[in-house]
Structure formats: structure tokens, C-alpha cells
Amino acid sequence: MQGAENLSKEQAHYLLHEAEGHNPGPWVGHSQHVALAAQAIAFHAGMDSLLAYTLGLLHDIGRRNGVYKIRHSIDGYRYLESLGLHHHARISITHCYTLKNMAQYNHMDDFSRSERSFVAKYIREQEYDDYDRLIQLCDFLGLPDRICRVEERIADILSRNPDAGPAHMENMKYKYRLQRHFELRMGMSLQTLFAPEDNAAQPASQ
Predict the structure, then answer these.
(1) pLDDT tens digits, 40-97
(2) 4-198, what's its fold?
(3) Is the pTM of this model over 0.85?
(4) DSSP 142
(5) Dist CA 206 CA 203 (whole Å)
(6) Closest to 131 measured CA to CA, from 30, 39, 12, 204
(7) Residue 104 to residues 39, 115, 118, 165: CA-CA distances in angstroms?
(8) Who contacts 205 (Cβ-Cβ below 8 Å, separation ≥6)?
(9) Integer Rg of the chain from CA
(10) What distance in Å separates the CA atoms of residue 68 and residue 72, rounded to the nearest whole number?
């Protein structure tokens, strides 16, 4: 496997397809739409759109291990680290923790004690960059069948997690700040970029 920055789309899709064989589910379509959203935003923001695409495609790869809650973050980290994909492994954890607050997932914590300690230390030590922030945003935008608005995604998450606490709500609201950050960087709104009639979210050119 090539290094993280040189991972091709074909290699990333192979890994996702292999993972789907272990645990089929809507998370695969979600990952594909996160990748498309990340690619489009990165292209218009002057970032590496190929890297953004593969980071988005593999951000939930820990779900290959089965149906769990937040522990897919550390499962993905371990798996991608074992392949030498260090940047992708980092995103597997950081995409879950926008605010670096473990409490945001108290309602769905299925870590062991040692895993919880590891993740808490890991996110505390990371200096997030715009690739971390991009996948944190696009994780919200990608549904299994399309790219949606932040508001729609919040409603979807709340419908599935009615017991989410204040820290989780604060994390979701922060997505609006991420949206504004990338809209300023692109010089256009997400609504313009992801127009309903062009929801495949392909960049205009590459």
C-alpha cells in the first residue's frame, strides 16, 4: 500500500469494498458521499482534492469490524495504521471529535477504559488542520444516498440519538462554523456548490 498522500482512488475504493464485505450497511454510501463532498470543497478551496477524497472515503473504515457506536473511530485508526496510512488513521479519530470533548459521545460510548484513555490523549495532542476540519464537516454532509445540508444532517442525527447531551449538541452546532470557514475559503456557499440538480457534487473541473 502506498503512503497516505499517494493513495489512489482505486486503492481507497478497494479498501472500502473489502470492508463492506465484512459489514455491509448504509455507512458505505455515507462514506462515498463524504468523499464526493470533500473532493468538491477541497478543489474549490485550493486543497489536495485527491487526498480529501480518499480521507473522506475511509474515515469510517473502522465499521468493517461490525455494528458498534463510537468505537469505529479507534478500530479504523488501528486498521489504517497497520497499513501505514497514518493521515487516514488520524482522520478516523479526529472526524468524530470536532471540539476535542469526549463527553459529546457519552450517550454512545462503547470504548474499553484503555481505549477511552488513548482517544482522549490522542485528540488532546493533535493540532487540527483544514483536512481534519474538512472531513468533520463532510461527515455531516454525506448521507447514504446524497449530499445534504447541515440542518438536515442535525435533524437526522437527533432522530437517531434523542438522548444526546449538551456536549453533543454543541459539537453539532459547531458544524455551522466549519461551513462558514470553508465557504469563505472557497468564495462560494455550500448551497451553490451542491445545487440540488447537481447533487453528485463533482468539481467543475480538475
Answers:
(1) 999 999 999 999 999 999 999 999 987 777 888 899 999 999 999 999 999 999 998 8
(2) Hypothetical protein af1432 (1.10.3210)
(3) yes
(4) B
(5) 7
(6) 39
(7) 27, 16, 16, 7
(8) none
(9) 16
(10) 6
